[in-house]
Amino acid sequence: MASLTNLWTLFQYFILGIVQGVTEPIPVSSSGHLIIARELFNIEARGLSFEIFVNFASLLAVMLIYRQDIVRLIVNTWKFLFKGDKTVKSDFMFVVYLIIATIPVGIIGVLFGDVLGEVLSGTNVVGITLLITALFLWLIRNLQGRKQDGDLSAKDAAIVGLAQAVATTPGISRSGATIVASMLVGMKKETALRFSFLLYIPVSLGTGILEIPEIVQDPAMGQLWAPYLLAFITTFVASYFGLKLFMNVMRQGKLEYFAYYCVAVGLLVLFFL
């Protein structure tokens, strides 16, 4: 009987890993889907430590896909700051804009992160915010921006950063909010996608570092290390392929598919959960 219980627990966290992995990179809200999955599978872990743990797996997948951009930005920022190479100024400024865009969510996370996670974690909130996500994805579905990496401004970065801060609400997709904002300020799809996911890196790293004490003190980490590890691996693999899928959909200009999905799931949550 105990072995069956353990297998069921492993299966539950395997599903949570898939849900987190697939929904983190696409604009449908991973936090909202984790809340839905926990409700469906009656998983009682309500703290943030599990989400932070699997978010780190998603972070590794994002960094793997964008590794060339990350290395180029680091190297060129070094060249600009310490070798005076003006030819790489656009990459240096891109890093500056990522820092600017990180500030709003950093402030919101430090001041209100725990409150938002607890107060706004109900399924009704998720259902409503998924519908809001769908609306904005629908509004930008046909936008064709012109701004590339070298055309961005501090104002653009601040607007995208504020959108990311709004996405701390469960059900509001982080990637969706930042890509919507990026395209509204005139970025090309490729630039919006790159800015959004490179912006995910400092936010995810910062959140993980700040929450290390909570993760270490969480008794579930000791009791459920095997399910957590399975969820971590599953999340990493699913995030990698989820982001590849999203990049392909963005190239094809089919963002409305995600709007339809968010409407369907939002209504199902509101009426049946």
UniProtKB/TrEMBL annotation:
It is an enzyme of class 3 (hydrolase). It is found in: Cell membrane. It catalyses: di-trans,octa-cis-undecaprenyl diphosphate + H2O = di-trans,octa-cis-undecaprenyl phosphate + phosphate + H(+). GO terms for biological process: cell wall organization; peptidoglycan biosynthetic process; regulation of cell shape; response to antibiotic. It is a multi-pass membrane protein. One of its GO terms (cellular component) is plasma membrane. Its EC number is 3.6.1.27. Its main location: membrane. The chain crosses the membrane at residues 45-66, 92-113, 119-140, 192-212, 224-243, 255-272. InterPro entries: UppP. Bacitracin is thought to be involved in the inhibition of peptidoglycan synthesis by sequestering undecaprenyl diphosphate, thereby reducing the pool of lipid carrier available. Catalyzes the dephosphorylation of undecaprenyl diphosphate (UPP). Confers resistance to bacitracin. This is Undecaprenyl-diphosphatase.
